[in-house]
Specification:
Length: 144
């Protein structure tokens, strides 16, 4: 799938124009999704130097996006800084402004890989106290 991912408030805590701390398991989840052949697009309001800093922040942690604020690397989506951003042709958007907010990254991973809605994900937690209390990544780490 093509997955568009927001930066501020999604990959890192919202400290725009500064870069907040990484939200737990954001980068490892995105790298795992790439390893499973999902195509990731960074989709952010950041431009210029602030955008470069976000891209570099991810690159330093081993996360390279297929494209940044565009559908593919060569696409020119903005003619000038004031031109509105075009909508991406993504299958999914991961954004802290989702209805209901951003689930933890373990939930994001499970929903993407199983193609579950958030409602379906939550149904899977019912009656399973261990799953309800710990995220996918924490359970994975503790099982090793
Ligand atoms: Mg955001």
């Amino acid at each position: 799938m093509i997955i568009a991912v927001d930066f501020d408030g999604t990959i890192v805590e919202h400290r725009y124009p500064h870069i907040g701390k990484e939200i737990p398991f954001a980068i490892v989840t995105l790298k795992q999704l790439q390893a499973e052949h999902h195509q990731l697009i960074l989709w952010t309001v950041r431009e210029g130097k602030l955008l470069d800093e976000a891209v570099e922040f991810c690159r330093e942690r081993g996360l390279e996006f297929y494209a940044v604020n565009s559908n593919y690397p060569e696409e020119q989506t903005k003619e000038t800084p004031s031109t509105p951003c075009r909508k991406l042709k993504a299958d999914l958007f991961i954004d802290d402004r989702n209805v209901g907010g951003l689930p933890d990254w373990g939930a994001v991973y499970e929903m993407v890989t199983h193609r579950w809605s958030y409602e379906r994900y939550l149904q899977g937690l019912q009656g399973n106290e261990e799953k309800r209390k710990t995220s996918f990544w924490k359970r994975l780490i503790s099982s090793k």
